[in-house]
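Hi C.,

You asked whether I'd gotten around to modeling the 290-residue construct. I have! Everything is below, sequence then structure, no commentary in between.
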Amino acid sequence: MNNQTPSQDYCVNGAGLGLRRGHMLEQLLETNAPQIQFMEVAPENWIGMGGRLGKRFREYTERYPFVTHGLSLSIGGPTPLDVNLVKDIKAFMQQHNILKYTEHLTYCSDDGHLYDLMPIPFTEGAVHYVADRIKQVQDILGQRIAMENASYYAAPGKEMEEIDFIKAVLEEADCELLLDINNIYVNSVNHRYDAVEFLKALPKERITYAHIAGHFNEDEDLIVDTHGADVIDPVWGILDKAYEAFGVFPTLLERDFNIPELPVLMKEVDRICTLQEKWNNQSAVVAANA
């Protein structure tokens, strides 16, 4: 199964699933799931892993294309970039033939880890600072990385809009975009903007792949990005609009806790595949009638 659009080259294809330890790690190797075309892991959770878990992970990386999504680079942090971590990630990617490294457009450290993803001020100075650090990472890895549009709950020191900040960082750093569909929805509710309008303002040519996930409704006007629940219909609707606007791109289901049994997860992966097939079929009809 390949639900990839032919209009743009991507590092992976189709629908993906974030690999987590626990029952998912054991069940997937025993299951025929051709709809899963790629997987993603946090490199910090697997670097240096040996023994049974290390062997099991190797079985996965030999079976599926992999990408990584970092947790602790702290690209916007005030302390010097952790160059040793980046070098460890490079070695990890080479060891397992991993195709892409991605991170959050946030920071998570200040002389120690903060154990949360904090918003970078939307300022011109922050654009230059973050772009320089992204370039440093790209130079070490020898490839462009992708930054994820992040969820945030306050905007301290804001001097520009979120969309303008993201676009400026991507342009100045010449990096790629990991498009998080759920984060667009979460921010659109928390900060009261139009999710589809925001989506369409993003640079299509920089999308490398996308995330889709669930969240927690703290209140009617406050949503917390948790990756611990099913994806809701409005978020699926934004993904549908994204495929309509940009064409089909690789899309991965994130589920970090409250992880259900594999058949339940696969229903959401199947829904990604269904949307991708819908828009690929429409593209084929348009092309045939051109």
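If it helps when you're writing up: The mean pLDDT is 90.

Thanks,
B.
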